[in-house]
Amino acid sequence: MEPPVPTLEDLVARLNPAVITIQTPTARGSGFFVAAGTILTNVHVVGAETTVTIRRPDGSSTTAHVEQTAPAYDIAVLKVTAPLEDQTTISMGSAVSARVGQEVIAIGTPLGFLQNTVSRGIVSGLRDVGGVTMVQTDAAINPGNSGGPLLDRHGIAIGIINSGYQGREGLSFAIAIDHARSVIEGRLVAPTSNGAAPSQYQQLAPSVPSQTDQRRANAERAYQQTLEALARRASTLDDRWRNFKAGCYTGTVAANLDHEWFGFWDPRALPGAVAPQCDSLWADLRKMAQAIRDDVMAANEAARQADILPGTRRDLLRRYKLDYPAWER
């Protein structure tokens, strides 16, 4: 049995604290909390910034860091370093199950200063735009609404408001929330066209090309190539470590390490004994491991200076099994 549909007034009163205004030196837009420290918005709202100001409906403000971006979907994930314990959040649903004609609510900051304005409309259609699912709605959308939530009548987000179609009243779009969930969970793949001929909606495909974005993309490719090479060195060291352990090491090794030699940075991980005749081999292995660690840390620092986002760096380190917190100690 489905829960009762709340009144529009109750729904808005309950969820309003989850919708915030995002300010950068050059723009204002909207965003909304999906977890106590996690905000969804559009890439074109945050632009090339790595830190933005968020303003809550009660007038208080704080900063948030751009954790992840998916420019092809115009989705950005922000992280608040000191989230409120009682922060109101909005649950993520799915646009796939949305029905044409169902009622939806949009909340945002139109024109950049009318904070937490509410508009109501219906789902006019679901559109595939170059592999991106867009929810078409007739809810009133204006500049500044971008990044805010498109909600169903239970207050569940089905989309991230993206744009109004200039010159066409009542024609607005939101990016399916399904894409945002994939970004957060690290499952997103680049959109691919289904081969259909370009349509009049093609111009709505979210794309935010800029010199900054291109520099960041180039730096990300270079960072990934560096990690690939370091992963190969790590694999070679894995082989040497296995041979060493078979003949020179007696005892246990901590579980859940991507590479057992990570234990060099945590004495509790390698509590066993090394045979006296193997001391020089042990020293050689430590030297090889230290060199890999130093190169990973250097690559990560270069990536940070190139404005590669923290979430992207973390995901790549995990992909190549080079993410080890003890290296930072």
If you had to describe this structure to a student in words, what would you say it looks like?
The protein has a six-stranded antiparallel barrel. With 329 residues, the protein is of the alpha+beta class. Helices cover 29% and strands 25% of the residues. The chain is elongated and about 75 Å long. A hairpin with a 7-residue loop joins strand 11 (157-164) and strand 12. It has helices at 8-15, 43-46, 177-185, 211-248, 279-305, 310-319; strands at residues 19-23, 28-35, 38-41, 51-55, 61-70, 75-80, 103-108, 117-129, 132-137, 149-151, 157-164, 172-176, 249-250, 273-274. It has two domains: 1-208, Thrombin, subunit H (Beta Barrel); 211-328. Residues 194-209 have low confidence and may be disordered.
In spatial order, strands of the major sheet run 1-2-3-6-5-4
Outline = elongated
Number of domains: 2
CATH-defined topology of the largest domain: Thrombin, subunit H
* Uncertain stretches: 194-209
Under the CATH scheme, which architecture of the largest domain would be assigned?
Beta Barrel
Helix amount, in percent? 25-40%
CA radius of gyration: 24 Å
Oligomeric organization of the protein chains:
single chain
Major sheet characteristics: 6 strands, antiparallel, barrel
CATH domain class name of the largest domain:
Mainly Beta
Mean pLDDT: 84
Total number of helices: 6
- H-E order: HEEEHEEEEEEEEEHHEEHH
N-to-C CA distance: 52 Å
Q: What percentage of the residues does DSSP assign to strands (E)? A: 25-35%
In total, how many beta strands? 14
**Structural class given helices, strands, pairing?**
alpha+beta
